[in-house]
User: Fold this.
Amino acid sequence: MSTAAAAARREHSGVVSWLTSTDHKKIGVLYCVTAFAFFLVGGTLAGMMRLELADPGRAFFEPGTYNGLFTIHGTVMIFLFVAPFGSGLANYLIPLQIGAPDMAFPRLNLMSYWLFTSGGCLILLSGVASAGGGAQMGWYAYPPLSAGRMSPGVGPDIWILGLGLVAVAAVMTAVNIVTTVFLYRAPGMTMWRLPIFTWNMVIVSILGLVAFPPALAGFALLFLERRMGGLAFAPAAGGDPVIFQHLFWFLGHPEVYILILPFFGVITEIIPVFSRKPLFGYTGFVLATLAIGALSTGVWAHHMFTTGAVDNPFFAAMTLLIAVPTGVKFFNWTGSMWGGKIVFPTAMLFSIGFLLNFLIGGVTGVMLAAPAIDFHAADSYFLVAHFHYTMMGGAVFGIFAAIYFWYPKMTGRMLRERMGKAVFALMFIGFNVTFWPQFEAGLRGMPRRVVDYPANAGYETPNLLSSLGYVVMAVGVLFFLADLWVSKRKPVEAGDDPWDGYSLEWATTSPPPEHNFDAIPPIRSERPAFDLHHEGADG
Amino acid sequence: MKPFVRYLWVLTAFGLGVGTLYWFIAHEVTGAVLLWAFGLMPLIVGLWALRHGASRNAPVAPEDDPNADPSTDAGTSVGSFPAVTVWPIFFVLGLLLAGAGLIYGLILVPPGLALAAFAIHGLMRESRQ
Amino acid sequence: MKRGLLVRAAAFAALSLLAVSCGARYGMPDPASKQGEATLDLWNVFMIAGIVVALIVYGLIAWSIIRYRRRRSDPEGARGASFRENLPLEIVYTVIPIVIVVGLFFLSVGTENEVTAVAPDPDLVVNVEAFAWGWRFTYPEQGVEVVSEPVGNDDAVGEGPELVLPSGQTTRIVLTSNDTIHAFWVPGFLFKRDAIPGRTTEFDVTPTTEGTYHGACAELCGWNHAYMTFHVTVVSPEEFAAWTASQSASSAVLPATSPSPEEAAA
Assistant:
């Protein structure tokens, strides 16, 4: 392979080097940037929905178009933004945090990036440019709605294909992460000294390996049913649509932990650093994450309480139990702040915002775990508000915290703190104004996924507030983009360790050299960079 | 035994155990099969690792030794890392072509798969260099 | 300090109990069925437990942030305390949530059994068939059928056919679908159930309050999902008997009542 070998020896610069590089740091940044671009698309779709729902009556979209909007919005946010952003961070950070020169399988890593990107583009395509109808069956694509007669056109086929590519990419990344962490740690970096972010990514990856294949099988059967006369989910032929729900939610529920655990990890890196304290209860925290991972494989059918076809008490018990390790984490985070000397840069503010929002998501999750309450609240706007409090108020706030925390490491430049605080204020206020009223609309009886709702039924004020809150959040995101632009135009040197950080990535330069470390310091605790910079200190 | 193999056994036991528990509580076959399959996945990797020398008597690896010095790793090669590769792009293009064939016409499937196979071949040759 | 805390906790608990006994609903609609009342009781327990837990956690976070912020008087590199763990404390904050969720679990199973219980001998059976996009309500014993007009694009949301039920009597709903998955949701009864093709699902509802209530399809079922609405009208058993008689006489006539805004908002 003389051409490729020659290319390998050539000086790497420009776009081509970014698109063919197997350096985990470049792939990680590519992942994050691509995922963030998908976020802007998904956010725009959300804005179109809020525009339609701002007042009763149908003003802008045909019902089918609207169904396409929330289908693509959900798919994009879950599979193309939050999860891949976690993969991107993991790609960038894990080798640095464990003192490895790269991921275990660099070519596989690049391949998973390309699968993810092309799958993502297919998913976007499936919503807009498909003959005979786009993907309009919701992000969980239940048959029979998604199977043939009721969803004609090639949109759903392209959507399934895109999702398949993204799922394969996720499995590849998971294999890569688990192998890297198990086999490529630096001397002294025992499993019980791993940074929490890395620990969480290991558990996320194992969950991905468990959860993605069944969903791929489900989607393959769905594809067969649409294109080739398969009958697995066709009741008239002895098939059962409920089986698809099992296959899908066996992915779908671990998936929400795949989405949130990386950002549990992120804020667990950030909070102790800015509290100027060690993490409180490291062992308990890791055990709690393991418990969440374990329990999350046994909760899938709480999405199916209202089918009357599953063992509700079993899934209610597992779902309620999962609140325990999550609660333990809240005490870890609070305990890490307790007795500290807390400073509040933007990354810390977003982490605290994460705590405040996620708690509401968690508490309402416990309510939904009770089947009797779920019978009322399932598939209502109460549910929509609940999962946005965990996914948006939690995971997305975690993403912004991660960006403000690690951007200096990735680029060597600082983001502007004052702009960052404005971003946080707008996002936090906008988020709560958007989603709090939806709890109320849902309890009053507003179903999700409706293009229109009756006037005078108590839905108007909550919906108007939601739409206004969206505008505030959108301004926050624009501020953030401006912050990125300013930091590029007028760079402020970051230095190697601007935050007085703990984990190993703060012991190398910003940005790190191609081989990551010129010399790896001795690793004697879970805070090697701190030990290096504060010899003999204990605080 | 390397510690990671122990993690694999724990995962196996967990998957098989929960699957069995679920079967006896819920009597629902889809979920039980999924959970049992989850138990088998780490078992495969664990057995492979056993066959390839993850034996009980191996010395503690430096990454598992809490007192290891960075220098204990000096000189051991972790293999070489490739700088750039174009094959993943070709592989994905091949997959896209084959996938489009499933939707728009089966005529596109063979060239798509051929391109993907060619890319895999290229990747393998590249990684053996 | 400690006693003050106890007193405040007791006062809060008393206030919460008061809220329950005064019929606080924390956003839930006023239940119009026996089953809905059971759900509301469970909801109030979960809501109070949730509020108490949230207040405690928010209090701890707020206290940490305010009390342990770095002050102007602290030197630039000031560091906090160095404790890393506290095993007894960690055990306590693991065990207490376990106790709470175990309690909530048994309460929720009890309520679920109450809500999904089917009477051996219901007073009335109604077959509900969901289709894209509308509803067919059949009263087999009375020989009455009410069916949606086919939903067109310009149909106003919130309208639809009328499901008439007698108050105080147990009605068995037999739910089916012949095309895709729908869900039968009456917010006033605090209950929904999926209608899945190939499956028949049954549940009982015992309406307690006369009035008209919104109903909707709650599972995405395609183009006109939002317009797949209906109404439930609960009337006295005598009125119900009169209604069925008039219906069997001229089955084309649909009841013309539609909900007033106040009832709809309830």
Summary: The beta strands of chain C are 124-131, 134-139, 144-147, 162-166, 171-177, 182-186, 191-195, 201-205, 211-217, 229-235. Chain C touches chain A through 90 residues (CB under 8 Å). Chain C has a mean pLDDT of 86.
